[in-house]
Specification:
Largest sheet: 6 strands, mixed
Number of domains: 2
Shape: elongated
Radius of gyration: 34 Å
Number of strands: 14
Distance between the termini: 19 Å
Amino acid sequence: MMSKQWSSAMNSFNEKFSILSSLIVSHGGLDGNPQDEFLSLLFGARTSPPLHQFLVNSLGEAGLKRMSKAVYGAGKELHVIIHEHLHPAVETMGFRVGELRGFSRWHSRFKNIGLDERLIENATEKTGMFLVQVERFARVLAVVIQLFQNFFIWVSKCIKILLPEPTDQIQQPNSELVVLFLKYIFDHDPVGQFLESSDGNRGIAANPDTTKQIEELVAFGGFSDTGFLERTLSMEFNQLEQCFKEAFFMPFSTVSKKIYCEDFLPLYPSPTSTTSILNAPTSVSYYKGDFSYVTNRETSQPCLLDYICFRIPDELLDSANCIGILKGLTCHSSSTDKGPTSIAAVLLRIPEGFQCVDLSLYKENQLILLLTESTSSSENPGQSWMMMLQMSILPFTSISRASLGNLWSLHELKGSAVELNLSRGKVRCIPHMVTAPLAVSASRGVASVFSARKHALVYILDEDEDEVSDME
């Protein structure tokens, strides 16, 4: 966003002031460039014909005002993005990584989950370095905008003198800043350098004296990486991201090695493409449930009943748009014979013309379904529905654990699938198309969904009235 804002302003500036170069070339015999022409005018020399024509005719007061407004507006937008979004986010990131740094030094407690002190230390330094780069970029932006403003004030004064018009109301420009602008900014773009994409290998040309001073500061405890002077914001962020990946992959790989599964139950056959499985909504919860469907169970032993709800990818069943619900799966322990010998399952078929965007278990024996019209389009976006279903009224079928190798008789249950309709449960109409995820809080009794208009819709689930608040 910053790159787009600034590039638009700089393209307008370069396009307008490139006219002066063309005028200088068209006046044969003149040996100079736009900077020399402006410096001659600044130091009191006679205005050359191409510069006079450019200031009075090609640029003019109106063109200069538009140019000044465009550059100042872009600088203001970048300032807002930096100080209201980027800088606070990086500070928060630094605080959180600092907490992890402290945890990583507690070896006896956190080393066994893969919180590596060296990797977290590296991520902490890269976070600090990125914060330094953001601060550095903000200062460069402020200086460049100041130089632009001073240059435009001086050019405006020159145009009024050439017309001639009174110049008493014009703020007096700083001649030294005009020289600095013509030398370092006129045909260079320090701000644009910081915002360049990381696709290329071009960095920022660092001042040798500055580099030497930074290297000397390392002895006083400064950042050991002095190459940040030549990196853009994008390059710096890529290095930060790589450090985070290395640091956070270590707990993942460490914990994964310690996970052992006693039993597996495929929820459905694996299709040729895994895309639909990765996007299939799933919800898992545990409640104190009714074990009356279970045989050979010592009910005096306390146990939580598990529910696993998931949408079955359409290509796996002849009849598409089905949701599967399992309960009592994890109450069985393969190492003892005290647990139940069966589990229970049910298939739900979503009504034709609707599709399940997401689902979530809510409190005990309640399922929240987020449905949208499958026939919606950009011209007719359609509506959505949030449906609360009592699972206690569903006809669960007991399945022997001996049939688990047959994917809990998925195709046998297809014939007894329960047809859902919007009158079976508590339904609320959402006058927008919605997207996943569906967030449900049992403790607060609310559900939140995201509409296609990028709004968050918050619903009170336990109230009969349709109370909803929209938030950006």
